[in-house]
Design brief:
With 909 residues, the protein is of the alpha/beta class. It is built from 18 helices and 31 strands. Helix 13 (686-701) packs parallel to helix 14. Bound molecules: adenosine-5'-triphosphate (ATP). Adenosine-5'-triphosphate (ATP) binds at residues 175, 383, 385-391, 420-421, 572-573, 599-601, 603. Adenosine-5'-triphosphate (ATP) is lined by residues 175, 383, 385-391, 420-421, 572-573, 599-601, 603.
């Protein structure tokens, strides 16, 4: 082995010296660090326990705890008297979480600061019974000790599907605390509400807790796979919340990291509890320390194991929650009666000449009036699902109907969503329909209500806006005293598609809102929180600028200006009413334009509501009729065919359905003697087949027995059963011939009067129906009372056959150019004055003046491009179940139709 003899050159010697110097310096530094560490360790090593001292300390801490957390906040809950009074002077600052036990026989209540200071986290979630017990007991203590109504709670609990909060259900029923959320969507809604509460977007200097309430978000367990972005939102809320009165009680924090990068830091400003077995360790509260380890040294938390409080006894929980709910009701409960004029004054005592007004709720003891006049012509109402929107509207509408005579106020009510908002205003019979004259012995109705749309189509909403626009045209020349109030519930649905209907609806809304202000036509638009509403509000030229009245119900803060947080955390039964377009105002300033009101649930006393409705109905002016009700999800029953008169007054009409229009009217095709008066139903499915069946029956009923002949052909096998049943039915009144394709060809020359009823007319072989004779029938048949009523499964064969029989086209007069140039019919400009669409003359079904054609086409389930191709122009049509598009070649107009219901027992399916 070679011995090292030191550096062998001057340069190596220098390098060696430098390395040795560095090593010596490192050694010295290490020795110094070790010495310093030993000194620190000596300083914080716990002094040997002096038992007496420990007992004294526990005693002192017990006394301190009773001062910091008196009564409900610190008492053992299993021994708490059920009669202990609820409520306290102010927001409780400290709360007990359990019992600290430094020695076997030395104990004191473990108390932590929460409200007004920061947050509390536990490292396990509500599946651990100790955590569930802790959360319930802390929540109960805070609710019982806080001044009534000052603490709002939002619960999140995914792992036990909300069971953690089950004992607090009476508070949810009372509207004091919404039911807990259990999934990611719910969590996001709670976070959004908390963010609204905190408003972190405001400059820090302007942040303050201007709420007189505190919002406590209790997370029992986070939804599985809560996304990092949402966790980050919780972290941000923890940082920003306390100044704004937002506090978090989060179990299961930090959540298990999804990846190494997504592990979460402890929540800032929180006291952390770590579970051990069977006790827990409690970290230092935010900004303070339980012990004093020395300056500049991190705190060590409470130097004693803590046994967390167990779930409070069920009877106690129940008693407290019920008492709080009852107090809430006693303090705030009002009834619809409180919003109505004194009954002794009688009905309809107010004049609508200068405007409408009603009481929408109470601010404290004071009734809050709100109205419709030039200054506050239209209202925008927002609230999440279940926020009491229907309740609020029912109050307003009954309030108005009790004050103003039906000659002074007419109501139009349309609901685009789930159809519960206006149930109150639908005088339903068992089958859902009211006779046309409104006579109904079963239910009363409000004489002010002209139309109700339940789960209405967008087309219905548009038709109503057109009607209101037309009314405003009339009022421009003939001013009207009677005011109109139109409520569009969930109006963003009307504007939901990026299409021509939305474009027209927007311009009509703008026009009605702008011109209605001084002409007595008023709007209430309501919406749940939706990005569509936010987008509408953000538009610079938004028609919502015409809506100075904003009513924010719980979850409806987005109808207010973004900087106005007055609606954050509203409980059920309250609303912020703002008459300045949702603008807020400086802190603490009295906002003359904004009130928080409480309003009653009118349905808590259904008898009183029914009596009021009955009173309004009983006093209705002579000749009043009930509202026209359009129920989007029902097929209207086919009206009874008029009894055949000895001398028929007019042509027989084929009734196909109800036009989606305001006012409602039947879609009736007159079958008069003029050439082309025939009807074709086009569509692949059974609905089209049923339509033909119903039409034939209805036509048969309009003729005296034996007056007409029916020739029925089924050219596709699937229609055979329907055709057979139809023949049997028709034969009870009229002569009927059942024919095949060959027989049909012969029947084209029927001398009349009669009907050729053909199922699956596209099912014939080419040429089976001779073009010459079909042309003659189409042109001359109506003159002798013969009409072709046919069903075609597809439009192509229909177009081909019609093209084959078409008369040679005239070279002038309204025939479209072969290159398709002509009027542009793609936008609202293609809309006729009667609310239907119009376009240029069609190509395939023959131009106006071409008599050898079928004038009336009814499309069921035919895609828009196919309809457009057939008609040779753009159409606005979305095929869907229960809807048809009726085309009238003579006027070149289309209308959306709800086909009449198939007669019960008639359908072969
Ligand atoms: N003022 C109130 N006080 C207490 N409870 C109320 C009040 N108003 C409504 N509620 C209750 O709240 C629930 C929801 O009310 P409502 O149907 O009016 O809400 P909504 O906003 O119209 O709901 P949705 O949009 O889902 O139809 C109902 O059970 C109702 O009884």
């Amino acid at each position: 082995m070679e011995t090292w003899r030191g550096p062998t050159s001057p340069a190596a010697t220098l390098r060696w010296r430098a390395a040795a110097g560095t090593a010596a310096a490192l050694h010295r530094r290490a020795a110094a660090t070790t010495a310093a560490a030993a000194a620190v360790l000596d300083a914080i090593r716990p002094a040997p326990a002096d038992q007496r001292e420990q007992h004294d300390l526990a005693e002192r801490l017990r006394a301190a705890a009773s001062l910091l957390a008196p009564g409900w906040l610190g008492a053992p809950l299993d021994a708490q008297s059920e009669d202990a009074p609820l409520g306290g002077p102010g927001v409780p600052a400290f709360v007990r979480i359990g019992i600290a036990q430094p020695l076997d026989d030395a104990r004191f209540p473990a108390v932590v600061p929460l409200l007004g200071t920061g947050h509390l986290t536990v490292d396990a979630d509500s599946r651990d019974p100790r955590v569930a017990g802790l959360l319930r007991s802390v929540l109960l203590r805070l609710l019982a000790a806080a001044p009534a109504g000052s603490l709002l709670v939002r619960g999140v609990d995914s792992a036990t599907a909300g069971q953690l909060f089950a004992p607090f259900a009476p508070l949810a029923d009372a509207g004091l605390m919404p039911p807990p959320v259990t999934d990611r969507t719910g969590l996001r809604a709670v976070l959004a509400e908390a963010e609204q509460w905190v408003r972190p977007t405001r400059p820090a200097t302007a942040r303050y807790n201007r709420h007189d309430r505190t919002l406590l978000v209790v997370v029992g367990s986070l939804p599985e796979l809560t996304e990092p972005a949402d966790l980050a939102r919780i972290g941000a809320l923890a940082r920003e919340g306390p100044e704004a009165g937002l506090h978090l009680l989060v179990a299961g924090w930090p959540p298990p990291p999804l990846t190494a990068e997504t592990s979460q830091a402890p929540l800032s400003r929180s006291t952390m509890i770590a579970l051990r077995n069977p006790y827990a360790l409690v970290g230092d509260p935010p900004g303070a320390s339980f012990g004093s380890p020395g300056p500049h040294l991190p705190g060590t938390g409470l130097n004693a194991p803590v046994f967390l409080d167990e779930s409070p006894p069920t009877p106690l929980l129940d008693r407290v929650c019920r008492d709080l709910a009852a107090r809430f009701h006693a303090d705030y409960r009002r009834t619809l009666d409180d919003l109505l004029p004194d009954p002794s004054d009688g009905l309809w005592t107010e004049s609508a000449a200068k405007g409408l007004g009603t009481t929408v709720g109470h601010a404290g003891e004071r009734p809050v009036p709100l109205g419709f006049d030039e200054r506050t012509p239209h209202w925008l109402v927002g609230g999440r699902a279940g926020a009491g929107k229907s309740a609020f509207l029912v109050n307003v509408l009954y309030g108005l109907c009790a004050r103003y005579h039906p000659d002074e106020l007419a109501l139009y009510l349309v609901d685009f969503a789930d159809g519960t908002a206006f149930t109150e205003f639908v005088p339903e019979r068992a089958d859902g329909f009211l006779p046309e004259d409104g006579a109904d012995s079963g239910r009363s109705w409000l004489p002010h209500v002209r139309a109700v749309g339940v789960q209405a189509d967008r087309e219905y909403g548009l038709a109503l806006l057109r009607e209101l626009d037309a009314e405003l045209d009339r009022r421009a020349t003939e001013p009207e005293q009677r005011r109109i109030l139109c409520v569009l519930d969930e109006f963003p649905t009307l504007l939901a598609e990026d299409d021509a209907l939305t474009a027209e609806a927007l311009s009509r809304l703008e026009s009605v809102a702008r011109r209605g202000r001084s002409a007595g036509v008023h709007l209430i638009l309501t919406s749940r929180p939706t990005p569509a509403l936010a987008a509408l509000r953000a538009r610079r030229d938004s028609f919502l600028a015409q809506f100075p009245v904003r009513v924010a119900l719980p979850g409806g803060a987005d109808v207010l200006e973004p900087a106005n947080d007055a609606a954050a955390g509203l409980p059920l039964g309250t609303a912020v009413v703002n008459t300045a377009g949702g603008l807020g105002g400086p802190r603490g300033a009295t906002r003359g334009h904004e009130r928080m009101v409480r309003f009653p649930d009118p349905h808590t006393d259904t008898d009183a509501l029914a009596m009021l409705r009955h009173r309004l109905w009983a006093d209705r002016p002579a000749g009043s009729t009930g509202p026209a009700v359009f129920t989007g999800y029902l097929a209207p029953p086919r009206p009874d065919a008029p009894e055949p008169a000895a001398e028929p007054a007019g042509p027989v009409v084929a009734l196909v359905g109800q036009v989606v229009e305001v006012p409602l009217r039947p879609a009736a095709v007159p079958l008069d003697p003029s050439p082309g008066r025939h009807l074709a139903v086009l569509g692949p499915g059974p609905a089209a087949e049923d339509m033909l069946d119903g039409l034939a029956r209805s036509l048969a009923a309009q003729h005296a027995p034996g007056d007409v002949r029916f020739v029925v052909a089924s050219l596709v096998p699937e229609a055979d059963p329907t055709a057979t049943a139809l023949c049997a039915e028709l034969a009870r009144r009229h002569p009927v011939d059942r024919v095949d394709a060959a027989g049909l060809a012969g029947a084209l020359d029927l001398t009349g009067p009669g009907y050729l009823v053909v199922f699956g007319m596209d099912g014939t072989a080419p040429g089976a129906v001779p073009a010459e004779r079909l042309r003659a029938l189409l042109r001359d048949g109506p003159g002798r009372g013969v009409h072709l009523i046919s069903w075609w499964r597809g439009v192509r064969r229909f177009a081909d056959q019609l093209a084959a029989v078409a008369e040679p086209e005239p070279t002038t007069d309204g025939v479209p150019e072969p290159d398709g140039t002509g009027p542009d019919h793609t936008g609202p400009g293609g809309t006729g004055p009667d609310g239907t669409e119009s376009g240029s003359a069609e190509r395939h079904t023959g131009a106006p003046g071409n008599a050898a054609t079928i004038d009336h086409l009814l499309f069921l389930d035919v895609p828009e491009p196919e309809v457009a191709r057939l008609l040779g122009r753009a159409v606005r049509w979305r095929p869907r179940s229960g809807r048809a598009l009726l085309y009238d070649r003579r006027t070149d107009r289309t209308s959306l139709v709800v086909p009449y219901a198939t007669p019960t027992g008639v359908s072969t399916r």
